[in-house]
Design goal:
Number of helices: 8
Strand content: 5-15%
Distance between the termini: 28 Å
Amino acid sequence: VKMRIGLDDERVTFVDAGRSAVDAGAAAVALHARTAEQRYSGRARWSAIAELVEALPHTPVLGNGDIWTAADALAMVERTGCAGVVVGRACLGRPWFFGQLADAFAGRPVRPEPPLGEVATIAADHARLLVAAIDENRGMRMMRKHLAWYLTGFAVGPAARKHLTSVSTLTELDDALAGLDPTIEVTSEAARQ
């Protein structure tokens, strides 16, 4: 069961909600450490995750909120005692982030962010899968937001960004991606953008 801290700072419900979920048979609970009122603004309150871990000593508690890098995930586990993490926005346009998390939790060096050429290949594969599952018209419309996420942190310029996020066909996408410099790199900190 995934929950937030509560509706707002006056209606904090996560400990009671966590206990109720466990009493109802939940095998684990996840806490997005913000209120519903906050949405995604402000800093996640990792201290609330630690409080839920303490309140549910026999149930795995997963933490969520402000995990942008593999180092963030390790820091959350260390600071809160949670059993694992749930990521949200950090994986949008970055499906390789799960591999980076696996590296970090296994104690391996964390693989770097891929250069734009690899990202373009992944984005094109993503688009083809969407089109195959739905159809080209709807799949490409859905893909536009994903393309914006894939480009986060890359210096491609506003014209290229606008063109890529308005493509309507796989052919247009392939042509637009072919026009990008495949060697452009980005740091893992770009995910925070």
